[in-house]
Amino acid sequence: MAAIQHGTVIDHIPTDKTYQVASILGLFSLQTPVTIGFNYPSKKVGCKGIIKVSDKFFTDDEISRLSVIVPNVVLSIIRDYEVVEKKTVVTPDELRGIVKCNNPKCITNNEPMDTLFHVVNKNLRILKCHYCDKEQEMENVNLV
Amino acid sequence: MAAIQHGTVIDHIPTDKTYQVASILGLFSLQTPVTIGFNYPSKKVGCKGIIKVSDKFFTDDEISRLSVIVPNVVLSIIRDYEVVEKKTVVTPDELRGIVKCNNPKCITNNEPMDTLFHVVNKNLRILKCHYCDKEQEMENVNLV
Questions:
Q1: How wide is the angle at C-alpha B90 spanned by C-alphas B101 and B70, nearest 5°?
Q2: If you write DSSP's letter for every residue of A12-34 in order, what string do you get?
Q3: Which of A28, A135, B88, B136 is the most exposed place for a label (fewest CB within 10 A)?
Q4: ipTM of the complex
């Protein structure tokens, strides 16, 4: 996969999470060059995904969305073919419009509205629905 | 994007069709290395997508599914880093389980079953539902 001049590289993605990472970052709606690779051989993780996005620098808010699926991933910020910064994913205090509530009676599953979760325990990665108080683990969420 | 040793390359995909091509070929379920690029600058088509799949050679049946979305695309078959064959997409006589019927009363929209369409005119690209006889243009289909 070719180097990019400016933009963002996300390497060492667990291969089966690559599509979700692309999806949650909205890559399929971007106008700049995007390369998505998966099932690449990797010494570190067996099999990995890589994403390279030219001319795009994600906001901290966009990056925090990744905490749901790949909390340990690192983003490399590239300028003039050099890595000028590494960004880690920080779990946010709230997740809005990203995760589905797993309570079928929750209002968010019955009205056209955004979900909202509070991260009540960042170490154990527990979310609590703002509307119905149902808790769920971040490992097992369904994305909106 | 790096060259592949063995496999299939699909170049000059209209960029906004790249995701659908990946999806219809089932690339997200493969176990071999896959690279998907889109929004790449192209002299021919303004902006293009490229897909490279290592160690995978699609059957004629799989390739014919592409007729719904990219009838003019060419697949390059790679062995030992060389293009050994070019395959064009041939519109099949029937499409099974690929396209949705746009008649909401059609049995295929109301029972858990595969759709089936006959290609009644390959030049005008007209499909006819096997079950309810409703016709639709291949340009405007919704995929299952």
A1: 65
A2: EEEGGGHHHHHHHTTGGG-SS-E
A3: B88
A4: 0.85
